[in-house]
Each structure stands twice: as structure tokens, then as C-alpha cells.
Design goal:
The chain has 367 residues and is an alpha+beta fold. It contains eight helices and 20 strands. The chain has one domain. Helix content is 22%, strand content 28%. The strands form five sheets. It has a nine-stranded mixed β-sheet. Strands 1, 4, 17, 18 and 19 form a five-stranded mixed β-sheet that branches. A two-stranded antiparallel ribbon has the order 2-3. The longest helix is centred in the first third of the chain and has 27 residues, at 108-134.
Length: 367
């Protein structure tokens, strides 16, 4: 007869003995792009009760050319605006009944395979959770449970608006409400806290022109004398859209030229080896969550094209509390034959400048 300590030790031990390349998993998302950004190279570790930062949204106006003995003009500009986000706590788990463990005492390899399958399913759930969170805003402006996803920072034009520009200011929350306060800074008041947004009706010459304009307008670089204040790592920008929208772009390019060779370009649009696509040197990635996308508040079909600059858009994880493995934990009196392993953590998405973090081109939203 095994003791509780022996059963728990066996459950814990198998996590160091997984064989490699043993599982075939029928993933239900094509790219897991949202989950993929949570890697050691991309994440930023931070502590504290909230995720905080500050942004200088305007200059003072003190710089000027002067003549001899001209009187100084002194003024104090706006102080830095603090922005903040809550920590979103996340957990996943996988369990065994003690009878499963006992049945495997003569077949250790079988138990290891079972443990691997259970953990893989738990991590699959976690990846799906990350993916859903990345492509969605929180539930409401007061929601402190769910993380801030891409639409929270890169916002579409308001309903019935069709004039492109730095007018992406309104967040559409999951409960159908709207607001212009992003991380505690009101984009309705501070225009430099808005992102570029525009609308399109079809993938055609006009859409291409709007994409070029957005790429040209939505990129900012620090001047030579100020680079020391803005230190950031180089990061790749990527383009995200639904499968149908990307396929429509292929059809548009085909109509322009039926024969695509490697890196054959049309207006800085490139089809590589006839299988994938670059626009302005940026990968175009098809996203399951953007297929058939609609506006939360009005139900309008949006079919968005997001461009994201990951130099300004970073996953933040709690230092010392990220994917912490716990267990095995005994189920107690309610599940007295069950042992459970847990992975826990806290994170959110950090965007230090919505204006520089990217842009979105989408179909018009009607109220």
C-alpha cells in the first residue's frame, strides 16, 4: 500500500522524465500569436501592486530663437502623466486520481505518458486563454480581472466616422460599453494618446493607398538630442488580419499579376514563394480571432487589419510569480483520492505609447 507522500512524490517526479516528441496535438488555433509573445525574449518582469509608467504628452514651448539682451520667457509645461494597469492573475491545473497512479505502478512509461498528456491539455487551455485575452479588451472600464488586449490600445474609429487619422480613441469593452480612458489617461483630452485608424470598403487600390499612408504617418523616432530619454529594444512589426481578408489580398495581387516570383513586389507588397505575404517588409499573419470580426457595441462587420510594433507593445509578468509550478496538492476531504498540479502567474500587456504602437484599418462602423 502506498502512503500519501509516496503517491505525491511519484506524481511530482514524472515531470522531470517526459519523453520528447511523443504527442500529436490537434491545435484549435492556427498561429497562437497572442500566446506566442509570452516568451523569455519578449516579456518584461516587474513587481509592485500595479503595473505603472509615465508619459510626457506635450512639450513646454520654451525653446525659441533670441536676440541680444532679450528677456527670458519661462514656463512650466505639463508634468508627466502616470498610467497604470492591474495585474491579471492566471492559473491552470491538471489532476490524477490515486487509482490512476496505482494502476500504473507496473507500467511507469504509461503513467509518464498520461502525465504528459494531462499537462499538455492544461497548457493548451492556457494558450487558448492568452489568445482570447490578447485579441479582446477587458469586460469594462472598471474590470481588474482580465488583461488589456490589443483593441484596448489600438482602437478603431468611432461609429459613423470615416475620416482617417489619429482618431483611434474609443475603447469598446466586452460588455458593450465604451470609454476613452486608456490606462488612466483620457485620449479624448490628450490627442497624443490616440492611435492612427482608418476605414476601407474593399481590398483595392484605395486600401493600398491607406495602408501606405498609415505606415508613413504612424511611425515616430526620437530626435538626436533626446534619444537618451527613449531607450527601447528593436522589435519587429507585424500585420494581423482574418483569413478571408488575407485571401482577398492574394486575389487582389493575382489580378495585378498572375505570375508571382520569389519576392515579386507590387507597391511594396510581396508574395514570397507564392505561399505567404509581406507588406512593407512586414509579415501578414492570419488570426482566427479576427476572422469575421464584428464591433462589440454595434455588431458591424469590421474585418480589421492591425499593424503592431512590439517595441512599444510588451507583455509584462510579475517577477517571481510567473508560471510557478506547484504541487502535487492533495484534494482533501472533498476530493480525497485526487492529486493536482498547478501553474500560476500574473501578467498584463504594457503599451508605453498607443500612438506609436500601431494602427488599424477596418470597415466602417455604423451605429
Amino acid at each position: 500500500m502506498y502512503t500519501y507522500d509516496q503517491l505525491g512524490g511519484l506524481a511530482a517526479f514524472v515531470h522531470t522524465k517526459y519523453p520528447r516528441n511523443k504527442l500529436t496535438v490537434t491545435w484549435d488555433d492556427h498561429n497562437y500569436e497572442g500566446a506566442r509573445i509570452f516568451n523569455e525574449e519578449s516579456i518584461k518582469m516587474q513587481g509592485g501592486t500595479t503595473i505603472t509608467g509615465s508619459a510626457v504628452l506635450s512639450p513646454t514651448g520654451n525653446a525659441r530663437y533670441v536676440g541680444y539682451y532679450e528677456v527670458d520667457e519661462l514656463s512650466q509645461g505639463e508634468t508627466a502623466h502616470a498610467f497604470t494597469m492591474p495585474w491579471a492573475r492566471v492559473t491552470t491545473n491538471w489532476s490524477w486520481d490515486e487509482f490512476e497512479i496505482l494502476q500504473s505502478k507496473s507500467n511507469p512509461e504509461g503513467f509518464i505518458n498520461l502525465a504528459q498528456e494531462k499537462e499538455m491539455q492544461a497548457m493548451w487551455d492556457l494558450a487558448n486563454l492568452f489568445e482570447t485575452a490578447f485579441w479582446n479588451p477587458p469586460t469594462s472600464n472598471s474590470d481588474d480581472k482580465f488583461p488589456r488586449g490589443l483593441p484596448y490600445f489600438v482602437r478603431m474609429l468611432d461609429a459613423d466616422s470615416t475620416t482617417g487619422g489619429f482618431e483611434g480613441k474609443t475603447i469598446r469593452f466586452r460588455d458593450g460599453t465604451t470609454g476613452t480612458e486608456c490606462m488612466g489617461i483620457d485620449a479624448d483630452t490628450h490627442s497624443t494618446w490616440r492611435n492612427w485608424a482608418d476605414v476601407y470598403t474593399a481590398v483595392d487600390n484605395e486600401f493600398v493607398a491607406k495602408m501606405r499612408k498609415a505606415f508613413n504617418r504612424a511611425k515616430f523616432r526620437a530626435p538626436l538630442g533626446a534619444k537618451q530619454f527613449e531607450v527601447r529594444k528593436a522589435a519587429k512589426r507585424r500585420i494581423y488580419t482574418g483569413f478571408t481578408a488575407k485571401e482577398t489580398m492574394f486575389e487582389y495581387l493575382d489580378a495585378k499579376d498572375d505570375v508571382h516570383t520569389t519576392k515579386d513586389a507590387f507597391g511594396r507588397m510581396v508574395v514570397t514563394d507564392g505561399t505567404d505575404m509581406l507588406i512593407n517588409g512586414h509579415d501578414v499573419v492570419s488570426i482566427d480571432a479576427l476572422e469575421g470580426a464584428t464591433d462589440i457595441a454595434t455588431g458591424s462587420t469590421t474585418d480589421p487589419w492591425y499593424v503592431v510594433d512590439f517595441a512599444h507593445f510588451t507583455p509584462v509578468c510579475y517577477s517571481g510569480y510567473w508560471m510557478e509550478l506547484r504541487g502535487p496538492v492533495h484534494g482533501g476531504t472533498k476530493q480525497h483520492t485526487v492529486w493536482t498540479m498547478y501553474k500560476d502567474g500574473a501578467h498584463n500587456i504594457w503599451c508605453d505609447s498607443p500612438r506609436s504602437a500601431g494602427f488599424v484599418i477596418h470597415k466602417a462602423i455604423t451605429s
